[in-house]
Design a protein that fits this description.
Layout: H1 4-13, H2 20-41, H3 73-77, E1 84-85, E2 88-89
Antiparallel strand pairs: 1-2
Helix pairs in contact: 1-2
Length: 96
C-alpha cells in the first residue's frame, strides 16, 4: 500500500535521512498500519457519539488574586529589564 518511493519522499520532506534498509522497513510497517485502518473502516460507527477526550478531566480556572505577602503587578513589572507596555512585558522576537 505504501511503497518505498512514498516513504522516501516523506522522509525528504521531513528532512530525515533514512538508509535503504530503513525505507524498506518503514514501508512495510506503514503499510501494515494502513491495512489495519481499513479493517477499522468496516465498522459501523454512525451511532457512536464523537468525542475529543475521554478522561472527564477539565481545566480548572481560578481568578487571579493577590494574596497577603505577594508582590503587586507593578512591583513585579518594575523588576524586569525588558520593556513594559500597557502593564505587560514586551518580549524580544525570536532570532531565526
Amino acid at each position: 500500500m505504501i511503497d518505498e518511493k512514498q516513504v522516501g519522499h516523506v522522509a525528504k520532506l521531513a528532512r530525515i535521512d533514512l538508509t535503504d534498509a530503513e525505507v524498506k522497513k518503514f514501508s512495510k510497517q506503514l503499510s501494515g498500519v494502513f491495512e489495519y485502518m481499513e479493517i477499522l473502516n468496516e465498522i459501523d460507527t454512525s451511532k457512536v457519539k464523537g468525542t475529543s477526550q475521554v478522561t472527564g478531566l477539565s481545566n480548572v480556572m481560578e481568578k487571579d488574586e493577590i494574596k497577603k505577602g505577594q508582590s503587586t503587578r507593578e512591583e513585579l513589572l518594575a523588576t524586569t529589564e525588558l520593556p513594559v507596555d500597557s502593564k505587560q512585558v514586551r518580549v524580544l522576537p525570536a532570532i531565526e
